[in-house]
Amino acid sequence: MNAAKTILILMMVISVIVVSGCIGQGNGQNLGSGIAIRYDVSPSVIYEGGQVAVYMDVENVDIAAVDAYVDIFNTGVFSYAGKDGRERCRRMYKEFLPGEIKSMRCVLDAPSDMAKQIVSTNVDYKALLNKQFSAPLSFDIIGQSIYLDQKNAGTLSYGQQSYSFSDPNILVSVEFSKQPPFVLREGEKVLMYVKTRSIGPGFLKDIDKDNFQLELQNQADNNVKLNCDFPGSGAEKLIAIKGEFPPITCELNIAEVYSKLNGVEQKNYLRSFMLIIKYNYEYEIRGTIPLVVNK
Q1: Can you state the percent helix, strand and coil of the chain, rounding each to 5?
Q2: How far apart are CA 179 and CA 191, in angstroms?
Q3: How far, in Å, are 73, 145, 221, 272, 291 from residue 184 at the CA level?
Q4: What is the 3-state secondary structure (H, E, C) of 204-223?
Q5: Neighbour-count burial of 13, counting CB atoms closer than 10 A to its CB (0-12 exposed, 13-18 middle, 19+ buried)
């Protein structure tokens, strides 16, 4: 094949691509965050003054139910079709069960009287998840007499000093200032630090103080309390910096409990406790659908 024929073929291919608007629109998916979003568009080739339908399948791929809000919030050069077009392009799914798939259809109007032969634009969508997260951890509080006896005998059982819990959206880590068991004695001070950060392709909304709870299941001794300091004096919300929130610091009132007991009770004290972390959070992921409009 000579050079002239090669150039001619290349020119023909380029002209076909230009006429067809750089081929059609593709489909895509946004996996992760406990939710999968897949989209498709029809027709595959869009012309000025025409319409395009965006189809979105939303699947809960997490192991727990969520509330999900899906919204096509930016239409680029397009506009919502019809008087209720804006409403048709967003959906609220309550008690969205694991493995369940929901579908939505959004119709958009392409611009008219385009100045250019081809216009590239983006249609943006977001999914806001509302989910409950909970995790348990345990520790023991032990009297000093029992602690010394078990330590000297080599039978002392140590607990975890740090924990880490996660789901597809968040990571919660807990660390004690000392390794359990905590010794019941005068002046004993045990702190607990709770850190939360966003993982996955999205981001966590601000942590509302009322939605983040640390419940000490201490029926064994109602005198034991967990006093927590929400960062920021008078703050009602935690705001993330690069996906990580300021730590919540808590203190076990061990010295106070010690002061309320008599000598025998202090020495023979042995209690196990369960701490439950409860967190109702909002998590948002965003995606983009690239589209091309032909004159």
Answers
A1: 15, 50, 35
A2: 11
A3: 57, 9, 13, 13, 66
A4: ECCEEHHHEEEEEECCCCCC
A5: exposed
Token pair 């080739």 is found at 45
**DSSP SS3 for 241:** strand
Rounded to 5 degrees, what angle do the CA atoms 70, 73, 77 make? 140
> Binning pLDDT at 50, 70 and 90, where does residue 8 land?
very low
What integer pLDDT is reported at residue 292 of this predicted model? 95
pLDDT of residue 29: 62
pLDDT at 93: 93
Mean pLDDT, rounded, of the chain: 86
Q: How far apart are CA 181 and CA 158, in angstroms?
A: 6
- How far, in Å, CA of 205 to CA of 277, rounded? 18
| pLDDT digit string, tens, across residues 115-127 | 889 999 999 999 9
CA distances from 59 to 29, 63, 93, 100, 185 (A): 11, 12, 11, 6, 53
Nearest CA to 70 out of 44, 93, 95, 47 is that of 93
- Provide the sign of the torsion angle of the four alpha carbons 146, 216, 180, 176, taken in this order: negative
